[in-house]
Amino acid sequence: ASTLGAQAATSGRYFGTAVAAGRLGDSTYSTILDREFNMITPENEMKWDTTEPSRGSFNFGPADQIVNHAQAHGQRMRGHTLVWYQQLPGWVSSIGDANTLRSVMDNHITTEMTHFKGKIYAWDVVNEAFADGSSQHRSSVFQNVLGNGFIEEAFRTARAADPSAKLCYNDYNIENWSDAKTQGVFAMVKDFKARGVPIDCVGFQSHFGSGGPPASFQTTLQNFAALGVDVQLTELDIAQAPATAYSNTVKDCVNVSRCAGITVWGIRDSDSWRSGDNPLLFDGNGNKKAAYDAVLSALGGG
Ligand code: G3I
């Protein structure tokens, strides 16, 4: 096939991108989106500061715009993200009472997942809960007030809200197998599977420097998959977008049968959160870069 999404589909995978609702009206942007990508992650529109800016007052307008676009164009959705210490409104971070915070967290998960029920392929239920350089959770209001069990609580609540959505744990710097952070997340997933805590997938954000993925990335993906979860590359971008680094990354996924798909974190370099690094597959004018051809060919197409 001659597009990323269609080529990924030949092996049962998807190829997605992060989308900003405010850019859907840009025809260069939406033309590439609808030609190349069959999975969409809202870049910011499903985060807590947008969806529940004050307690019990929900705003799904910007996310609905993206979901409606996806439905009209046959694209599936990844939901991002329900429980994260960033883009968290001040009213949540200042809660000090455990019963209050637990009910606020559970209500946020249930209300947001119920609103989008049946329309989301996979949810990033918890994002970036582990500390860098460590196997422990990072400090956050959820960790500090609810303790280690907040992640399990979030996943159990999520399963009850939409039993048909895949439930993912998503993080960065967990691509290198020997890193303490990777080992910490691996131990959590192993424990969840052993105790029947509902988890279906692990998202590897894959924000790489110009060298691309660590040499052990495929091993990491394989080891997680062996625990009985899907693995997904959820926010891929690579500084300067070297063709070889992109090709190596795609092959690491394609070589693992439970690697369900790849999402790049934006369309054109000018759309990127790290636009100074020119890390994406299309330049600012929407032209395909060398990395695009490398990705298409690593997926087996071209
Ligand atoms: O919407 C406001 C706008 O009203 C205001 O005028 C403007 C002024 O700065 O800010 C706008 O909000 C910005 C928002 O993006 C939308 O553009 C925020 O400041 C900015 O912080 C926010 O950045 C996002 C970042 O997450 C926040 O942590 C990036 O777009 C988004 O790409 C990035 O994505 C994260 C993933 O969710 C999780 N993994 C890491 C990844 C990269 O940081």
UniProtKB/TrEMBL annotation:
Its EC number is 3.2.1.8. The keyword Signal applies. The lineage of its organism: Bacteria, Bacillati, Actinomycetota, Actinomycetes, Streptosporangiales. The chain holds residues 37 to 338 of 459 of the full protein. Belongs to the glycosyl hydrolase 10 (cellulase F) family. It comes from Actinoallomurus iriomotensis. It comes from the Bacteria. One of its GO terms (biological process) is xylan catabolic process. GO terms for molecular function: endo-1,4-beta-xylanase activity; polysaccharide binding. This is Beta-xylanase. Keywords: Carbohydrate metabolism, Glycosidase, Hydrolase, Polysaccharide degradation, Signal, Xylan degradation. It catalyses: Endohydrolysis of (1->4)-beta-D-xylosidic linkages in xylans. The keyword Signal applies. Residues 1-298 form the GH10 domain.
